[in-house]
Structures are given as structure tokens and as C-alpha cells.
Write a structure and sequence with these properties.
Blueprint lengths: L2 H18 L2 E7 L1 H4 L9 E6 L5 H12 L1
Antiparallel strand pairs: 1-2
Length: 67
């Protein structure tokens, strides 16, 4: 499965987890966004955090997404 296919399959899960952690406006950047991803590529996400959220929330988002 390609990274593009994985993102399409997991899109709703990613958005649900982001909302739970106070993140919105989830965007993809890097090699995937440029259409240059290969088997070695990772998935780069950029998010906006709600006011009052901390780096702990961002770390929690990262951990949840890695699961």
C-alpha cells in the first residue's frame, strides 16, 4: 500500500485523533505533498493547536497517530 493510499484509508482516523488532542487544520507537507514520496518517506503533518493547548497535547497527538 502506498503512503497516499494509507492516508486516504486513515484520513478520518487522523482527523478524529487531531480533534481529540485540540488540533485542527491538518495539512500534509514534504515529499508526499510534492508527489515525491517513496518507500523510505515518512508522513509530515502540520496542525494548528487550540489556544491553551500545550506541547504535551502535541506530543499526545504524535503518540496517538503512531499507534
Amino acid at each position: 500500500m502506498s503512503l497516499d493510499e494509507l492516508l486516504q484509508e486513515k484520513r478520518e482516523d487522523i482527523l478524529r485523533i487531531a480533534i481529540k488532542r485540540g488540533a485542527s487544520n491538518v495539512r500534509i507537507f514534504g515529499s508526499i505533498a510534492r508527489g515525491e514520496a517513496d518507500a523510505e518517506s515518512d508522513i509530515d503533518l502540520l496542525v494548528d493547536l487550540e489556544p491553551g493547548r500545550s506541547l504535551f497535547d502535541l506530543g499526545g497527538l504524535l503518540m496517538d497517530l503512531q499507534d
